[in-house]
Fold these 4 entries.
Entry 1:
Amino acid sequence: MTLPSAVASLVFVRDSDETNAVLFADQTGLPADALDALRAVVPLAAQSLGFTKEVCVKAISLPPRVAGPNGPQIASIFGLGNRESSVFSEYNRMLGRLPKQVVPIADDGLGNLFVVSKQNGQVYFWDHECPDEEASEAAFTLIASSADDFLSRFVPAPSINSEELKRGVRSVRLDFLN
């Protein structure tokens, strides 16, 4: 599996360290097919992967609190070693907050995570500010049927036309005294 070509050119490796290229992600219970999909795009020595421009995930289901038709943004794909921002470190950091049957593999940069189910290999978006509690079923939205499917759903975020922004709200008046 590779990333879609429109997104592959936007990827950069965060802090690569060949001396620390040891696989730890397999110690989280991450399903083998999900691990294989990540290994195909994330160098083992990488702390994580980032993007030079905004990238979204065209989700199977749009999470309730995500605006826009392109789905949630993705800020980084976690590395496979045991360093900061790795699958292993994020899994351990989130123990007690996330159900044990999911493994974090990426984030949106706002505290929300993309997680893989250990039971069925499906990828979910986890909303850490879900009104029904962060560990509730409502906090999880199905994004992709597998890690391969997840990676294939990456699309560059549409650019914002500044002319459209100029036609928006011209002024706002806040009146707190009435």
Entry 2:
Amino acid sequence: MSQVAVLGGVTLTPGTVVLVVLLVASAFFALTAAVGFYRLPDVYTRSHAASKSETLGALLALAAAAIAFGPSEAVKLGLLALFVLVTGPTAAHAVARAAADSGIEPWVRERPDLRADGSGDEEVPER
């Protein structure tokens, strides 16, 4: 098996490199989900950020675990990944549906070219 040299004479196998890449990508998507949940303005966009990014982050972490633990645990981790893949977006959809049923309006960006008196509704010419 080939090895990849790293700083300081430390050597890593290709499997370890793949494992580290998967874990870093997983942490990136989990952090992206957390930032999106914190920064986005309403329940709809927050649930979107949480469901998409966090699901991908969890799947990457499970793939890293499958590589680390080997084939004996890969089936269990595959079933867990299927569970995460189904329940994450389903829960986000349920939250968004509950918000819509409760009458929560989606956030809409204020357009500076529209005024309260209705002026500014005309088409804006292309540049």
Entry 3:
Amino acid sequence: MTDPAVPPQAGGAVPPSFPPPNAGAQGFPPPPGVQFPGAPEVKPKKKFLAKALGILGTLAVIAIVVVIKIGIGSAFAEDATKDAKAGDCIGSKSELAETASEIKAEIVDCSSSAAKYTVLDRVEGVKDVNSPACDAILKEKLKDGEKGNIIASAEGEGYLLCVKTN
């Protein structure tokens, strides 16, 4: 065996080198980074495309979750006053304000302490609480000293409930 630190003598064995002289020949893989003429180019992976698709996929999942949450929420958030008619009583945890505000109202038994308002009339097809649609009704049906108000719903075509305070 020859010592690799000692140069070979004339006619002696040649120490192995890298890459071997026959690298790339049949049966031997080519050395790293060497490309032969006519061979297809190896393109680097497109990290940008993969990253963009990942972001778009994430956004799509978020959008689907939001749509499902809104859809399920609106399916369970039923309009509690949709069947209210003249003579029904309405209960609410909050008072109706002088200006438009959102409240949670529901039909309650008129003998209940929760009955804060009595429906005087219902106006269909109007969603705007500031509409004058209840003005004539309130003027006609309220007695001196009684206070009237309006509850609006935007469900479907919308409606107004012209109510008096109990």
Entry 4:
Amino acid sequence: MQTRRLQTKDDGLVLSTIKEISGKRIEERRRRDRITQPQLARAAGVSVRWLREIEAGNPKSKLDEHLACAHRLGLSTAHIMIPLLLMERRLSIPQELFLEEDLSELEDRCIALIFEHSSSTISRRRASYFDDAGDQE
């Protein structure tokens, strides 16, 4: 079975798709947790009317508003951040990424990789520093 991919040549389409998927996930989580729109809107710092637009995937909504709502709900933001990273690199986005309900495992793996990279970079810099210091003695 061939993987369908969203091409990142049209950034507007990618951003609209991200906002649409994000809005659906925000609404689903809010309903699941029995949080009202006024409660979430207040917590996220947006109006109830605008929260409705966010949940509807309005392309004019801002990603920081989606992130604020997702954070208030304890929802992973991987469905926003990973496609943005792929878009920045001009890589196509597997549509299955948008269909997965829970990307927290993928998010955890990305975070672990970042920490691993950071640790190895720090170790290399520290070793280089001590090697340079030893040469000066």
